[in-house]
Amino acid sequence: PSRDALIARLPKAELHLHIEGSLEPELLFALAQRNGVSIPFASVEAVRAAYSFSNLQDFLDIYYQGMSVLQTEQDFYDLTWAYLERAATDTVRHVEIFFDPQGHTERGLAFETVLDGIERALRDGEVKLGISYRLIMCFLRHLSEDAAFATLDQAMPHIDRIHGVGLDSSEVGHPPSKFQKVFAKARELGLHVTAHAGEEGPPEYVHEALDLLQVERIDHGNRALEDAALVRRIADEGLTLTVCPLSNLRLCVIKDIGQSPVRKMLDLGLKATVNSDDPAYFGGYINDNFRAIADALDLSEAEIVKLAENSFTGSFLPMADQIQHL
Ligand code: ADE
Ligand code: ZN
């Protein structure tokens, strides 16, 4: 239908994408062989079959295990380049990519191995695919704030190559307040700040992300809808929410795709965007996410265009660059 054609050709930005979550089973297998890393799967099909999750933690266990095949700078390049080529086919023009340095430094890799490989692919993507980028370093919230500070210290010699910080991993039991000091430091350094909040955690965590971390965006934000005062605040401040429909479905945050919060957010005048989160694990890239909700939420063409526009105006690009894409 014409909606699919519109989605296919609309320029868009992806604002919520964990680069390690774009590791497709085929590349996972190839890297395991290349690096002599053993993985507990006999085939690509067996890997895909294991991607059945009943909550966020279920997924995270498999996601951190999958990272073990990433060993060299070239591995991070190949991972990132594969994502960018795929994103280009979805007419993505700008990406703001999350990476999880602690998932790698905890395994003994150098921070630089990770950063250099990802960034080299991003630079190639800018030249060869015309996709601009920002790079967002996430702190793993199941680890301590001291560990986050240690990661920020490792990043310091390269801080001009990192545009923002985020907060991800197991949400419940690890509220934003745990990371108040390290986010204050990041802001002092002039970094952009965002955080996963309200994916599984309560509205209170979204309040904390805003009040204590002073985030510029909310990643997911589903459960913010439970709190009317919070909804009003998000609307008044024009904050962007990076919603991930297929992720929500596969992690059982919603029961069916028709329950995606995008419908309510649009109706409430909130600035929602559509993103793929961890596409290799959740069965779809950005256009797959758009198509899934376009049908289920019966989005109008104007609403689809609005979601794509929100992705640029909600990005960390300077205003002049945002406007170029509208
Ligand atoms: N890390 C990768 N994807 C994530 C998600 N959806 N929520 C929290 N942490 C993550
Ligand atoms: Zn995420």
Automatic annotation (TrEMBL):
One cellular-component annotation, GO: cytosol
Annotated Adenosine deaminase domain residues: 11-326
BP GO annotations: adenine catabolic process; hypoxanthine salvage; nucleotide metabolic process
E.C. designation(s): 3.5.4.2
Catalytic activity: adenine + H2O + H(+) = hypoxanthine + NH4(+)
Coiled-coil ranges from the UniProt annotation: none
Cofactor binding note from Swiss-Prot or TrEMBL: Binds 1 zinc ion per subunit.
Name of the protein this chain belongs to: Adenine deaminase
Organism annotation: Novosphingobium ginsenosidimutans
